[in-house]
Specification:
Layout (H helix, E strand, L loop, with lengths): L3 H4 L5 H14 L5 E2 L11 H9 L13 H15 L8 E4 L2 H11 L3 E6 L5 H7 L3 E6 L10 H9 L6 E6 L12 H10 L2 E6 L22 E6 L12 E4 L5 H13 L6 H12 L3 H22 L4 E2 L8 E2 L2 E2 L7 H12 L1 E2 L1 E2 L12 E4 L5 H6 L9 H7 L1 H16 L1
Parallel strand pairs: 1-12, 3-4, 3-5, 5-6, 6-7
Antiparallel strand pairs: 2-8, 7-8, 9-11, 10-14, 13-14
Helix pairs in contact: 3-10, 4-10, 5-6, 5-9, 7-8, 11-15, 14-15
Length: 408
């Protein structure tokens, strides 16, 4: 009854851990939701108001997206990237995840995935019937591949088309790729297209975020959306920016869009115009200030001779490595942590690592972001007292995790 192609697929682990956490909470257990990655902040009020004001919009919109929205997205991105994107380069989708899936379906070639990679990249490649080349990365390089490692993969068969997924700031590591220029040189040299997943780019803790599109715009598809910086994951609005040089890809995604989701919800598209048209710098700066402070607290209080961890650079994730030999696999370790402490983590194996590496993804978003945001001013320095008051489950969960690591 089922196709062989789908028989081995399982529900997305990021969504599954959220369901598991809810189920355990209903059973009366105290769970620290460090497994599911979701913005803790509410959608800006002006954007919410625009959604309410456009609830009457009930017409099918163009499959590539509302022209007014595509215009403001192109203008917004052109200013940030110092590159001339036009509305024709923008495709609006029901979350960037759906657009990535369509890209996998239409692409004819091999997918290069650095490990760690977001959990849905590989299953979508399987559904697109593309072969996957996984590149194992190192902590010393911020968990990103080197140009040489990418080149060695391509040189195995230069006649093929290659699509590299590059996610910076990264989910699950919270790190930023700082060797973009050398990777771009490989893209220019060979038949390599890059999908630059920049969904966390607005939440980079330093102000000088760089996209690989700055070095090879004609080879780069930018993927991003509202879910992370705007706290609107459930709204499901993302977009691609596809350069003129990849017009065949853009046109074919539009064809598949017409046969799948038809068009993104009309009220949400109208509301999204305000998200990119209005100035939300204060909202974003507060978000970054809080996330950096909370992430840095987790980092400072977890790192030890039992836990290796890189300092957070963007988004809301950390990827601790536990120097513990008691367990046979990272899923077994994470199950033990959940049962013993109530701390929900995702195992590193969900992101492409070998199961024997005791890596896990930790999301530090289990707090009321709206309340936290109300209580601080702009770039106010956030101290431990603020975190104790407004992110108590972060304090308690980190303490439990630290004690667990010391007791094993």
């Amino acid at each position: 009854m089922l196709k062989n192609l789908v028989k081995d697929l399982k529900p997305s682990s990021t969504l599954l851990i959220n369901e598991t956490s809810r189920r355990l909470e209903k059973q009366g257990k105290k769970i620290f939701k460090f497994g599911f990655g979701q913005s803790p902040f509410k959608v800006p009020e002006d954007v919410v108001k625009e959604l309410k004001d456009n609830a009457h919009q009930n017409k099918y919109l163009p499959m590539q997206g509302l022209s007014e929205l595509r215009n403001v997205v192109a203008k917004y991105t052109s200013k940030k990237k110092n590159y001339d994107y036009k509305s024709e380069n923008v495709i609006i989708g029901p979350g960037s995840k759906e657009l990535m899936f369509l890209l996998h379906v239409i692409f004819d070639g091999e997918i290069i995935l650095p490990a760690p990679s977001w959990v849905s990249y590989a299953p979508q490649a399987v559904l697109g019937r593309n072969k996957i080349q996984i590149l194992q990365t190192k902590r010393e390089n911020n968990w990103f591949p080197t140009a040489l490692e990418i080149e060695e993969t391509i040189l195995k068969d230069k006649s093929k088309n290659y699509l590299l997924f590059l996610n910076s700031p990264n989910n699950p590591s919270g790190q930023i790729c700082d060797n973009l220029e050398e990777i771009a040189s490989i893209a220019q040299k060979y038949n390599l297209i890059i999908l630059s997943d920049e969904i966390y780019s607005e939440l980079t803790f330093k102000d000088n975020f760089q996209s690989i599109s700055s070095f090879c715009p004609e080879k780069t598809i930018i993927s991003t959306g509202l879910s992370k910086w705007c706290g609107a994951g459930g709204w499901r609005l993302g977009y691609f920016l596809v350069p003129d040089s990849l017009i065949e890809i853009k046109n074919m995604i539009n064809v598949l869009a017409s046969e799948t989701f038809s068009a993104v919800s009309a009220p949400i598209q109208y509301a999204a115009i305000k998200a990119y048209e209005n100035d939300h710098s204060n909202y974003i700066n507060k978000s970054k200030n809080i996330l950096y402070a909370v992430g840095n607290y987790v980092y400072e209080n977890l790192k030890s001779n039992k836990i290796l961890i890189n300092k957070p650079q963007g988004g809301f994730y950390l990827m601790p490595e536990f120097l513990i030999k008691k367990f046979n696999s990272s899923p077994e370790m994470c199950d033990n942590i959940l049962n013993d402490t109530g701390v929900a983590l995702l195992p590193g194996s969900d992101f492409g690592f070998d199961q024997t590496k005791m890596l896990a993804r930790l999301s530090f978003t289990d707090f009321d972001g709206q309340e936290f945001m109300k209580k601080i001013e702009g770039n106010q320095k956030i101290n431990k007292g603020h975190i104790v008051n407004f992110a108590p489950k972060i304090i308690e969960g980190v303490d439990k995790l630290k004690k667990w690591s010391e007791s094993i």
